[in-house]
Amino acid sequence: MSAAVAAAAAAANSGSRCNSANSSSSGNENSLLSRQIAVTQPLQPPSRYESQKRRDWNTFGQYLRNHRPPLALNRCSGANVLEFLRYLDQFGKTKVHTQMCPFFGHPHPPAPCPCPLRQAWGSLDALIGRLRAAFEENGGPPETNPFGARAVRLYLREVRDAQAKARGIAYEKKKRKRPQQHQESSSSTDLNSTQPNGGLVMVDSSDHGRPSMIPLSVLN
Prior knowledge:
Layout: H1 2-40, H2 48-66, H3 78-88, E1 94-95, E2 117-118, H4 121-137, H5 150-167, E3 181-184, E4 189-192
Antiparallel strand pairs: 1-2, 3-4
Helix pairs in contact: 2-4, 3-5, 4-5
């Protein structure tokens, strides 16, 4: 009787070791297969927006480090953001006519003039949007986001209005696109729709440029 019990126990132990070995082998094969799949599937490159946002964020960080005295990100305020935007004007490519210029309010000046080049309002507005998102993605609290400060919004509005007058550009906000409605009747079916939304219309910047070293890649 004891011999039969011992034989049964030995058989059970042998079966357990086989099952364990099979499970280990299967687990190793699955792990190897997962690694092979990960290697054969290349990582998707970041989108153009994400790449530009990263460059903008690095550029702003460099600006803070080069500031005299250097500024820490957690001590940055809306006033520092305004300084950064004014600093970018020296690399602008958009002709903004002064009130003394004969081409003030002329959308297509027939001749060159000595008016200064500035950053276009649309470029600054897009830049602030990317930096505002990058600030929160890098751990900054939304309630203290300097790129969303009221002073920054007012500054962008002033730049938009001033450039619209100086360059003779009308910023018109179009109506939003509404869902099409089908009205059925016994005689006919009428389809009503509205004009599509185009947002804010912005005329391209002037091609007049000036030779300078532009160490920034934040704007076009």
